[in-house]
Amino acid sequence: MTDTILSNRISGLQRQTTTARVVALLRDQILSGALPEGMQLRQEKLASELGVSRVPIREALCQLEAEGLVTQESHKGAVVSGLSIDDLEEAYEIRARLETWLLELSMPLLTQQHYARAEELLAEMEANQQDEHWSSLNWRFHAALYAPANRPQTLELIRKLYLNAYRHFPLPIRLTGGRERMHREHQLLLDLCRQGDIERAKDHLEQHILMGARQLISRLKALRVRDEGAA
Protein backbone atom coordinates (compact mmCIF):
# COMPACT_ATOMS: atom_id res chain seq x y z
CA MET A 1 0.00 0.00 0.00
CA THR A 2 2.79 2.46 0.93
CA ASP A 3 4.63 1.71 -2.32
CA THR A 4 1.46 2.39 -4.29
CA ILE A 5 0.86 5.72 -2.57
CA LEU A 6 4.48 6.76 -3.10
CA SER A 7 4.33 5.71 -6.74
CA ASN A 8 1.17 7.74 -7.28
CA ARG A 9 2.75 10.78 -5.66
CA ILE A 10 5.87 10.50 -7.81
CA SER A 11 3.72 10.12 -10.92
CA GLY A 12 1.72 13.19 -9.89
CA LEU A 13 4.88 15.25 -9.34
CA GLN A 14 6.29 14.19 -12.70
CA ARG A 15 3.07 15.22 -14.43
CA GLN A 16 3.10 18.60 -12.65
CA THR A 17 6.70 19.15 -13.74
CA THR A 18 5.83 18.24 -17.32
CA THR A 19 2.80 20.54 -17.24
CA ALA A 20 4.94 23.40 -15.91
CA ARG A 21 7.43 22.92 -18.74
CA VAL A 22 4.64 22.89 -21.32
CA VAL A 23 3.08 26.02 -19.81
CA ALA A 24 6.42 27.85 -19.89
CA LEU A 25 7.11 26.81 -23.47
CA LEU A 26 3.67 27.72 -24.82
CA ARG A 27 3.63 30.98 -22.86
CA ASP A 28 6.98 32.02 -24.33
CA GLN A 29 5.82 31.07 -27.83
CA ILE A 30 2.66 33.15 -27.44
CA LEU A 31 4.39 36.17 -25.92
CA SER A 32 7.10 36.14 -28.58
CA GLY A 33 4.48 36.06 -31.33
CA ALA A 34 5.63 32.67 -32.64
CA LEU A 35 2.08 31.48 -31.89
CA PRO A 36 0.06 34.42 -33.23
CA GLU A 37 -3.31 35.75 -32.15
CA GLY A 38 -6.15 33.51 -33.32
CA MET A 39 -4.03 30.39 -33.89
CA GLN A 40 -5.80 27.16 -32.99
CA LEU A 41 -3.95 25.04 -30.44
CA ARG A 42 -4.80 21.40 -31.13
CA GLN A 43 -4.03 19.13 -28.20
CA GLU A 44 -3.11 16.13 -30.34
CA LYS A 45 -0.70 18.13 -32.50
CA LEU A 46 0.95 19.82 -29.51
CA ALA A 47 1.32 16.50 -27.67
CA SER A 48 2.99 14.96 -30.71
CA GLU A 49 5.32 17.92 -31.29
CA LEU A 50 6.35 18.16 -27.63
CA GLY A 51 6.56 14.42 -27.04
CA VAL A 52 4.15 14.35 -24.11
CA SER A 53 0.68 12.96 -23.44
CA ARG A 54 -2.47 15.03 -23.87
CA VAL A 55 -2.94 15.34 -20.09
CA PRO A 56 -0.20 17.97 -19.47
CA ILE A 57 -1.23 19.73 -22.70
CA ARG A 58 -4.83 20.00 -21.47
CA GLU A 59 -3.70 21.19 -18.03
CA ALA A 60 -1.30 23.72 -19.57
CA LEU A 61 -4.02 25.15 -21.82
CA CYS A 62 -6.29 25.55 -18.79
CA GLN A 63 -3.58 27.48 -16.95
CA LEU A 64 -2.87 29.68 -19.97
CA GLU A 65 -6.60 30.34 -20.27
CA ALA A 66 -6.59 31.53 -16.64
CA GLU A 67 -3.72 33.87 -17.57
CA GLY A 68 -5.72 35.28 -20.47
CA LEU A 69 -3.37 34.01 -23.17
CA VAL A 70 -5.68 31.27 -24.46
CA THR A 71 -9.43 31.32 -25.14
CA GLN A 72 -11.78 28.37 -25.57
CA GLU A 73 -13.98 28.89 -28.63
CA SER A 74 -16.90 26.74 -29.73
CA HIS A 75 -16.13 24.45 -32.67
CA LYS A 76 -12.43 25.42 -32.49
CA GLY A 77 -11.27 24.62 -28.99
CA ALA A 78 -8.25 26.49 -27.61
CA VAL A 79 -6.97 29.48 -29.59
CA VAL A 80 -4.36 32.13 -28.84
CA SER A 81 -6.12 35.14 -27.34
CA GLY A 82 -5.98 38.64 -28.68
CA LEU A 83 -6.22 41.94 -26.84
CA SER A 84 -8.77 44.64 -27.48
CA ILE A 85 -7.69 48.27 -27.64
CA ASP A 86 -9.19 48.77 -24.17
CA ASP A 87 -7.18 45.80 -22.86
CA LEU A 88 -3.97 47.26 -24.32
CA GLU A 89 -4.62 50.65 -22.78
CA GLU A 90 -5.24 49.06 -19.40
CA ALA A 91 -2.06 47.00 -19.67
CA TYR A 92 -0.02 50.16 -20.21
CA GLU A 93 -1.79 51.93 -17.35
CA ILE A 94 -0.92 49.04 -15.02
CA ARG A 95 2.67 49.16 -16.24
CA ALA A 96 2.90 52.88 -15.58
CA ARG A 97 1.71 52.45 -11.98
CA LEU A 98 3.88 49.43 -11.19
CA GLU A 99 7.04 50.61 -12.93
CA THR A 100 7.05 54.01 -11.26
CA TRP A 101 6.59 52.25 -7.91
CA LEU A 102 9.51 49.92 -8.62
CA LEU A 103 11.67 52.85 -9.71
CA GLU A 104 10.88 54.70 -6.48
CA LEU A 105 11.98 51.66 -4.45
CA SER A 106 15.01 51.04 -6.61
CA MET A 107 16.59 54.47 -7.06
CA PRO A 108 18.14 54.81 -3.57
CA LEU A 109 19.78 51.39 -4.12
CA LEU A 110 21.19 51.92 -7.60
CA THR A 111 24.97 51.55 -7.78
CA GLN A 112 27.59 52.43 -10.37
CA GLN A 113 27.39 48.83 -11.55
CA HIS A 114 23.68 49.22 -12.27
CA TYR A 115 24.27 52.50 -14.10
CA ALA A 116 27.08 50.98 -16.13
CA ARG A 117 24.85 48.10 -17.21
CA ALA A 118 22.05 50.51 -18.18
CA GLU A 119 24.51 52.61 -20.20
CA GLU A 120 25.73 49.47 -22.02
CA LEU A 121 22.16 48.57 -22.96
CA LEU A 122 21.46 52.12 -24.15
CA ALA A 123 24.53 52.04 -26.36
CA GLU A 124 23.50 48.67 -27.77
CA MET A 125 19.98 49.93 -28.47
CA GLU A 126 21.36 52.93 -30.33
CA ALA A 127 23.79 50.83 -32.37
CA ASN A 128 21.62 47.78 -33.06
CA GLN A 129 19.57 48.32 -36.21
CA GLN A 130 17.76 44.96 -36.08
CA ASP A 131 14.23 45.72 -34.93
CA GLU A 132 13.59 42.21 -33.64
CA HIS A 133 16.20 42.76 -30.89
CA TRP A 134 15.14 46.26 -29.90
CA SER A 135 12.14 45.36 -27.75
CA SER A 136 14.26 42.86 -25.80
CA LEU A 137 16.96 45.45 -25.20
CA ASN A 138 14.31 48.00 -24.22
CA TRP A 139 12.92 45.66 -21.57
CA ARG A 140 16.38 44.78 -20.26
CA PHE A 141 17.23 48.48 -19.89
CA HIS A 142 14.14 49.16 -17.80
CA ALA A 143 14.59 45.96 -15.78
CA ALA A 144 18.18 46.94 -14.96
CA LEU A 145 16.88 50.11 -13.27
CA TYR A 146 14.18 48.23 -11.33
CA ALA A 147 16.25 45.24 -10.21
CA PRO A 148 17.51 46.70 -6.88
CA ALA A 149 13.90 47.03 -5.69
CA ASN A 150 13.98 43.24 -5.18
CA ARG A 151 10.37 42.68 -6.20
CA PRO A 152 10.73 39.69 -8.54
CA GLN A 153 7.01 38.88 -8.74
CA THR A 154 6.13 42.43 -9.70
CA LEU A 155 8.95 42.54 -12.22
CA GLU A 156 7.79 39.29 -13.80
CA LEU A 157 4.22 40.56 -14.00
CA ILE A 158 5.41 43.71 -15.75
CA ARG A 159 7.52 41.66 -18.15
CA LYS A 160 4.50 39.58 -19.12
CA LEU A 161 2.38 42.71 -19.63
CA TYR A 162 5.13 44.19 -21.77
CA LEU A 163 5.52 41.11 -23.94
CA ASN A 164 1.79 40.47 -24.19
CA ALA A 165 1.18 44.00 -25.45
CA TYR A 166 4.11 44.10 -27.86
CA ARG A 167 3.22 40.82 -29.57
CA HIS A 168 0.20 42.57 -31.12
CA PHE A 169 2.35 45.06 -33.00
CA PRO A 170 4.20 44.11 -36.20
CA LEU A 171 7.88 44.99 -35.88
CA PRO A 172 7.84 48.02 -38.21
CA ILE A 173 4.89 49.49 -36.30
CA ARG A 174 6.76 49.31 -32.99
CA LEU A 175 9.56 51.62 -34.01
CA THR A 176 8.23 53.85 -36.78
CA GLY A 177 9.48 57.35 -36.12
CA GLY A 178 10.22 56.62 -32.49
CA ARG A 179 13.73 55.27 -32.11
CA GLU A 180 15.53 58.61 -31.62
CA ARG A 181 12.81 60.01 -29.34
CA MET A 182 12.82 56.90 -27.15
CA HIS A 183 16.61 56.98 -26.91
CA ARG A 184 16.46 60.58 -25.66
CA GLU A 185 13.79 59.66 -23.13
CA HIS A 186 15.80 56.68 -21.90
CA GLN A 187 18.90 58.85 -21.51
CA LEU A 188 16.94 61.46 -19.56
CA LEU A 189 15.50 58.76 -17.29
CA LEU A 190 18.99 57.48 -16.57
CA ASP A 191 20.24 61.03 -15.90
CA LEU A 192 17.38 61.69 -13.45
CA CYS A 193 18.19 58.45 -11.64
CA ARG A 194 21.84 59.48 -11.32
CA GLN A 195 20.75 62.84 -9.93
CA GLY A 196 18.58 61.10 -7.34
CA ASP A 197 15.50 63.12 -8.35
CA ILE A 198 12.90 60.49 -7.57
CA GLU A 199 9.77 62.56 -8.28
CA ARG A 200 10.98 63.87 -11.64
CA ALA A 201 12.20 60.40 -12.61
CA LYS A 202 8.81 58.88 -11.76
CA ASP A 203 6.91 61.57 -13.67
CA HIS A 204 9.17 61.16 -16.68
CA LEU A 205 8.86 57.36 -16.64
CA GLU A 206 5.07 57.55 -16.42
CA GLN A 207 4.90 59.89 -19.40
CA HIS A 208 7.41 57.76 -21.30
CA ILE A 209 5.21 54.67 -20.91
CA LEU A 210 1.87 56.36 -21.56
CA MET A 211 3.10 58.39 -24.54
CA GLY A 212 4.54 55.26 -26.08
CA ALA A 213 1.20 53.51 -25.49
CA ARG A 214 -0.78 56.27 -27.22
CA GLN A 215 1.45 56.21 -30.28
CA LEU A 216 1.51 52.43 -30.59
CA ILE A 217 -2.22 52.05 -30.08
CA SER A 218 -2.91 54.78 -32.64
CA ARG A 219 -0.84 52.83 -35.18
CA LEU A 220 -2.53 49.56 -34.26
CA LYS A 221 -5.98 51.11 -34.74
CA ALA A 222 -4.94 52.33 -38.18
CA LEU A 223 -3.56 48.90 -39.04
CA ARG A 224 -6.78 47.14 -37.99
CA VAL A 225 -8.92 49.59 -39.96
CA ARG A 226 -6.75 48.92 -43.01
CA ASP A 227 -7.04 45.16 -42.57
CA GLU A 228 -10.82 45.36 -42.13
CA GLY A 229 -11.04 47.46 -45.30
CA ALA A 230 -8.98 44.94 -47.22
CA ALA A 231 -11.20 42.11 -46.03
Summed up:
Helix content is 76%, strand content 3%. It is mainly alpha-helical and 231 residues long. The chain folds into 2 domains: 2-80, Arc Repressor Mutant, subunit A, CATH 1.10.10.10; 85-230, GntR ligand-binding domain-like (Four Helix Bundle (Hemerythrin (Met), subunit A), Up-down Bundle).
Give the overall silhouette. globular
The major beta sheet can be summarized as:
2 strands, antiparallel
The CATH topology of the largest domain, please? Four Helix Bundle (Hemerythrin (Met), subunit A)
- Give me the secondary-structure category: mainly alpha
CATH structural class of the largest domain: Mainly Alpha
Q: How far apart are the first and last residues' alpha carbons, in Å? A: 63 Å
Radius of gyration: 21 Å
Estimate percent helicity. over 70%
Number of helices: 10
Task: Explain what this protein looks like in three dimensions.
The structure is a single chain. The longest helix has about 35 residues. This protein has a two-stranded antiparallel ribbon with strand order 1-2. The chain is mainly alpha-helical and about 230 residues long. It has two domains: about 80 residues, Orthogonal Bundle (Arc Repressor Mutant, subunit A); about 150 residues, Up-down Bundle (Four Helix Bundle (Hemerythrin (Met), subunit A)), CATH 1.20.120.530.
Task: Please specify the SSE layout and strand pairing.
Blueprint: H1 2-32, H2 43-50, H3 54-66, E1 70-73, E2 77-80, H4 85-106, H5 112-127, H6 131-146, H7 152-166, H8 171-175, H9 179-195, H10 198-230
Antiparallel strand pairs: 1-2
